Automatic annotation (TrEMBL):
Family: Belongs to the peptidase S41A family.
This protein's record includes keyword Signal: yes
Keywords on record: Hydrolase, Protease, Serine protease, Signal
Descriptive protein name: Carboxy terminal-processing peptidase
Assigned GO CC terms: outer membrane-bounded periplasmic space
Stretches assigned to the PDZ domain: 233-317
A Pfam family that the UniProt record links to this protein: Peptidase_S41
Gene Ontology terms, MF aspect: serine-type endopeptidase activity
Gene Ontology BP annotations: proteolysis; signal transduction
Residue ranges the record marks as coiled coil: none
Signal peptide, first to last residue: 1-23
Broad EC category: hydrolase
Gene3D superfamilies: 2-enoyl-CoA Hydratase, Chain A, domain 1, 2.30.42.10
């Protein structure tokens, strides 16, 4: 029997096979959560920033979010199922308000039925299907979630699953796994997924339902049920010993949301946001496939004793996303000193002279609250450390200063406020608007200035929250050039509220710059943009579902020190000219273009082995050519293999930021001389 006939028999047998008796018991609403539902309505309508009315419009959004949370890849429900379930589209608000959430369990139980039937049948036929796959056939799998539609028939869904299964098998095959290992690995993945479903309880379903409602309001409002951890992020930085990463479930995968500054993952490896973890291993032990496994089980495997090594097999979010790679990380506890501000000096040669530019890197806005409460006068804080480092850099006769907030995800608002005060006299730094419309300005009351010279703030897409407050304030005051990429756009404030069962994290206020512009959604736009390897389409507030919009309120009174916009016509062309010839930036721009091409090309994944091999070789060749072009321009020895490529030691961005600052200083000095000349002529 050839492959096509075998597949037809398998799919026909699956499609028309009678549904086996369910191995899973249908779940019903836990009545102790009836009160929670009513509390959530009261709190969301009463204290959420938008003061929403939980109505049919909210219900319709929540319905879509709930379906997406259950079946994000459109793998189990048919279009006819969705059409039938759409009768409940306007019922979610009533269910929450009345404390009767049966509708959520009716939908979930149908999902459970579809999933059990699908995965059980796959496990029955999986060995024969994998053995029958022909990797010479030129066919593709749609991997673009925006283009994926609900299947109209069982036959369409069967074919979609066949292609998904074939792709998973091909990935393992290309990684050198034997056919037996491929079968056992994928069987284990589906068993894990069934096991995860088996471990899902009524409270988990309630939490998913409640979070569908909160997601219809904004992406940062969430309900947390007691002891439930399946549907919200687990911050591994809080673990005793871990890798310092925030993880969440994404379909069947464990996905990296962000890295903790100063943590092992951020400092030891090339793990990146949006990477997927597909296997976890320990030293001298075999890798364990974790696709389909519960998030808390994966976290337990990654945690371990200090100074031991964990091995992660990941599918990267950038580059060849269809080939996995392994990285090793030594477990450490993330300590305050690992996140402390650090300094360095960048030396720039110009006209036969060497100029020093100080760089202070700040991974987060921190303060040792325990030491403060204990009365320790020598407590650590980001403001104190930055001030000390500035004083040390001034002793070394720096010409300018760079505050590096790249990858700084925020932290203490008080620290952001006081740190901004190091560069300005007393004045407002941020405005906070609450749900009642009341605006409260926060500012620095200390008139002392630690550094008054030329400076820049270096930011990227991962600079968020408190980082955006500092960058925005210094930009509005004209105290610093903002260099880099558009920031994250997290400009909202959340508070935790206790409910009868669990907690509600609710958005209650928004941040506004002293200019009146919100940092929400839009973030802080740089004065001069640097090329970025971070994809704004997948990372940032605007990439989240249903973010609160950007808006503006009245500005507050503040002085402007330098009108930076007047300098940009001179600074930008010089910056662009340097980037066009700088070997490092040329390589970075080439890499960005390749990533864009790969993102488009991988929206449709080839299931032909020779094509995948060629794609991998082409990517390696492009990477090698790009690196050798850079090395040739720098007069370095050329490489023969991509395996020999090492990270660029020099911080290209800090170097270029230093060049921009020196341009600014020269332009400012010239403007002052011209002004003095005009004054003298009068």
């Amino acid at each position: 029997m050839n492959y096509k006939r075998l597949l037809l028999c398998l799919l026909t047998g699956y499609t028309f096979a009678s549904t086996p008796a369910s191995a899973y018991q249908e779940l019903q609403p836990p009545h102790e959560y009836d009160k929670v539902s009513k509390e959530l309505v009261e709190m969301l309508e009463g204290i959420h920033y938008n003061r929403p009315h939980i109505d049919d419009a909210i219900s319709a959004k929540a319905f879509d979010y709930y379906i997406d949370a259950l079946d994000p890849s459109k793998s189990f429900f048919l279009k006819s199922d969705i059409d039938t379930l759409s009768q409940y589209r306007n019922s979610f608000d009533d269910a929450l308000r009345k404390g009767d959430t049966q509708v959520a369990y009716t939908i979930y139980n149908l999902y459970l039925k579809r999933l059990e039937k699908r995965l059980s049948s796959l496990q029955d036929h999986l060995p024969e299907m994998i053995k029958g796959f022909d990797y010479d056939i030129d066919e593709t799998l749609n991997a673009d979630p925006e283009a994926q539609q609900w299947a109209n028939t069982e036959a369409e869904l069967d074919d979609y699953w066949r292609k998904r299964l074939k792709n998973r098998a091909l990935v393992l095959k290309l990684n050198g796994e034997s056919e037996e290992k491929i079968i056992s690995t994928i069987e284990r993945r589906y068993k894990n997924q069934l096991k995860r479903v088996d471990q899902t309880n009524a409270v988990d379903v309630y939490q998913t339902f409640a979070n569908a409602i909160t997601a219809a309001l904004d992406p940062h409002t969430s309900y947390f049920a007691p002891r439930a951890s399946e549907t919200f992020n687990i911050n591994m930085s809080l673990s005793l010993e871990g890798i310092g990463a925030v993880l969440q479930m994404d379909d069947d995968y464990t996905k990296v949301v962000r890295l903790v500054p100063g943590g092992p993952a951020a400092t030891q490896s090339d793990l990146s946001p949006n990477d997927r973890i597909i296997a976890v291993g320990q030293e001298d032990k075999p890798m364990i496939d974790v696709v389909g496994m519960r998030l808390d089980d994966v976290v337990d495997m990654i945690r371990g004793e200090r100074d031991t090594t964990v091995i992660l097999e990941i599918t990267p979010s950038k580059g060849d996303t269809q080939t996995s790679k392994r990285i090793s990380i030594v477990r450490k506890k993330v300590k305050l000193e690992d996140q402390s501000a650090k300094k360095e000096i960048v030396e720039v040669e110009r006209d036969g002279e060497t100029y020093k530019v100080g760089v202070i890197s700040l991974p987060t806005f921190y303060s040792d609250f325990a030491a403060i409460q204990a009365g320790d006068k020598d407590y650590k804080s980001s403001t104190r450390d930055t001030k000390r480092l500035i004083e040390e850099l001034r002793e070394e006769k720096i010409s300018a200063l760079i505050l590096d907030l790249r990858n700084n995800g925020g932290g203490s608002l008080q620290e952001a406020n006081s740190l901004t005060g190091l560069f300005i006299p007393s004045g407002p730094t941020v405005q906070i608007r609450d749900q009642s419309g009341r605006v409260t300005p926060l500012g620095d009351s200390d008139t002392a200035i630690t550094y008054s010279g030329p400076m820049a703030v270096l930011v990227n897409r991962m600079s968020a929250s408190a980082s955006e407050i500092v960058a925005g304030a210094l930009q509005d005051y004209g105290r610093a050039l903002i260099l880099g990429d558009q920031t994250f756009g997290k400009g909202t404030v959340q508070v935790l509220q206790e409910v009868d069962q669990g907690q509600l994290k609710v958005t209650q206020a928004k941040f506004y710059r002293v200019s009146g512009e919100s940092t929400q959604h839009k973030g802080v736009m740089p004065d001069i943009a640097f090329p970025s390897l971070i994809d704004k389409e997948t990372i940032g507030e605007s990439a989240l579902d249903n973010p609160l919009p950007w808006d503006k309120i009245h500005e507050t009174r503040y002085p402007v020190y330098w009108k930076m916009s007047a300098y940009l016509p001179i600074l930008e062309p010089r910056h662009e000219a340097r980037m066009a010839t700088d070997p490092n930036f040329v390589a970075i721009n080439a890499q960005i273009e390749e990533f864009k091409e790969q993102v488009e090309s991988y929206k449709s994944i080839s299931l032909k082995e020779s094509t995948r091999i060629q794609q991998k070789e082409d990517n390696k060749q492009k990477e090698l050519e790009r690196e050798n072009t850079r090395r040739k321009a720098l007069g370095l020895e050329l490489l023969t293999s991509v395996d020999d490529i090492e990270p660029i030691e020099e911080d290209t961005y800090a170097k270029e930021a230093s060049e921009v600052l020196l341009d600014f200083i020269a332009t400012n000095q010239m403007a002052q001389k011209q002004a003095e000349k005009k004054t003298a002529q009068k």
